[in-house]
Amino acid sequence: QVQLVESGGGSVQAGGSLRLSCAASEYTYCTDEMSWYRQGPGKEREFVGRIERIGTTRYADFVKGRFTISRDNTKNPVFLQMNSLKPEDTAMYYCASIRCGNWGQGTQVTVS
Question: Which helix (H) or strand (E) covers residue 10, if one does?
Fold first, then answer.
């Protein structure tokens, strides 16, 4: 089973930036498509965005223009660059291989 580990979370002021990383224990077909989700305090987990095998990215409306998902290729970590952060972006952020049902443990992002 592929293990996913997120890193890069922290506390920032509104308007600031953070770059999250998601590393996999192995890069297989499971990691060809990778997604980011988040769960804010008292909220349900929600989709943030994903990167597909050929590099196409898709985002939730609330992050378009502010967040960018990237990676060099399907055998490398996935990044979530978050700019213009708002207090409502405060959440635990998770990377996931929805295809294989693998989730990381999450990394906390706090925006004040």
Answer: strand 10-12
φ and ψ at residue 63, rounded to 5 degrees: -115, -5
* Interacting residues of 67 by C-beta distance below 8 A, sequence separation 6+: 48, 49, 59, 80, 81, 82, 83
Distance CA 27, CA 33 (A): 11
Altogether, the residues listed in the chain come to a count of: 112
The one-letter code for the residue type at 25 is S
Q: Would you say the C-alpha torsion 49, 54, 98, 12 has a positive or negative sign?
A: negative
Tell me the pairing of strands 67-70 and 10-12.
unpaired
* pLDDT, tens digit, 9 for 90 and up, residues 48-100: 999 999 999 999 999 889 999 999 988 899 999 999 999 999 999 999 999 99
